[in-house]
Amino acid sequence: MRVSDTFPVRDGLFAIVEGGTPLLITGRCNDCARLHFPQQSTCPYCAATTVTQELLDGEASLWTWTSVLREPPGYRGPVPFGFGVVELEAGIRIVTRLTESDPRQLTAGMPMRLVVDDLHTDDEGRVVQTYAFAPVTDMGVPPDTDPPGADGEAG
Ligand SMILES: [Zn+2]
Q1: Is 145 among the domain residues?
Q2: 35-36 and 51-57 as β-strands: parallel, antiparallel, unpaired?
Q3: What spacing in Å lies between the alpha carbon of 55 and ligand 1's midpoint?
């Protein structure tokens, strides 16, 4: 367990369930039933003040993306990093960090999955973590790496 030496960049964004799977902490309005992220005490759509927390699994598809080349103010993590919008299976789109920083490796609609990403180490030596979305191809199946004319069979 690395729980003691890591902490989220901000409380209330994601939760880690048994087995290490991250879930997004969203809010569902009891009035208009719309989801929002991050969870707020007031519905951003209808201003109702009755919001129920809902943990969503991180299956999503990529909507739009870019690569951030320079550190935004206050940012202490590595650059470049990917940044974009994904659409969760539950139907909401959220702004998120992406683990893939090369825009050429990303395509609209590609399957993405929620992960927890190490951002930087703070002054007290703790690893600050945030949520991010990773192309599903990054997890297990290697991306299509088949350069034309590569015939280097070893052994
Ligand atoms: Zn509402």
Answers
A1: no
A2: unpaired
A3: 17
Q: What confidence tens digit (pLDDT) does each residue in 62-93 have?
A: 999 999 999 989 888 899 999 999 999 999 99
Q: What is the Cα–Cα distance from 99 to 139, expressed in whole angstroms? A: 11
Judge residue 86's burial from the number of C-beta atoms within 10 Å of its C-beta, 0-12 exposed, 13-18 middle, 19 or more buried: buried
Q: How far is the CA of 46 from the centre of ligand 1 (A)?
A: 4
Domain count, the chain: 1
The rounded Å distance from CA 28 to ligand 1 centre is 8
pTM of this structure:
0.81
Q: Is the pLDDT reported for residue 119 higher than 80? A: yes
Centre of ligand 1 from the C-alpha of residue 59, in Å: 24
> Residue 79 domain-assigned?
yes
Q: What is the mean pLDDT of residues 93-115?
A: 96
Q: How far is the CA of 134 from the centre of ligand 1 (A)?
A: 30
- Length of the chain measured in residues: 155
Domain holding 32, by residue range, is: 3-137
Residue 142 placed within a domain? no
Is pLDDT at 51 greater than 90 in this prediction? yes
